[in-house]
Design brief:
55% of the residues lie in helices and 23% in strands. The N and C termini lie far apart (81 Å). A five-stranded antiparallel sheet has the order 4-3-2-1-5. The chain is an alpha+beta fold and 112 residues long. The chain has one domain.
């Protein structure tokens, strides 16, 4: 979605126009001495910005929800990887403990 030239409203700076947009940032030119400000996209629309055009606002909010879902899926993936690594570590410790126990038992058996 092309956001360049879209009008937005900021909670503090007022009305501005998006002058640049890429996947992660947008530049908004505000009136008066405020000048141009950079914002993270789409996160800024969750807290600071609102599109004057309702259709654009709806699309941006859909993008926010999509990104939040991606973040949650990534968090869950990382958590599963961490749990799997912990399980492997426990398994390795148990195997080592078993090997040591077997070695001690063999040693005691040889001593008798």
């Amino acid at each position: 979605m092309d956001l360049v030239n879209e009008r937005v409203e900021h909670i503090k700076f007022g009305i501005g126009i998006i002058t640049e947009a890429n996947n992660h940032k947008i530049a908004v030119q505000f009136q008066d001495e405020t000048g141009t400000k950079l914002f993270l996209y789409p996160e800024a629309f969750e807290r600071f910005l609102k599109s004057v055009n309702p259709a654009v606002q709806d699309n941006v909010m859909k993008e926010c929800r999509r990104k939040q879902k991606q973040i949650e899926l990534e968090r869950k993936r990382i958590e599963k990887e961490r749990e799997a690594a912990e399980l492997e570590e426990k398994k390795a410790k148990l195997e080592l403990a078993n090997k040591k126990a077997v070695a001690r038992a063999r040693k005691r058996k040889k001593q008798k």
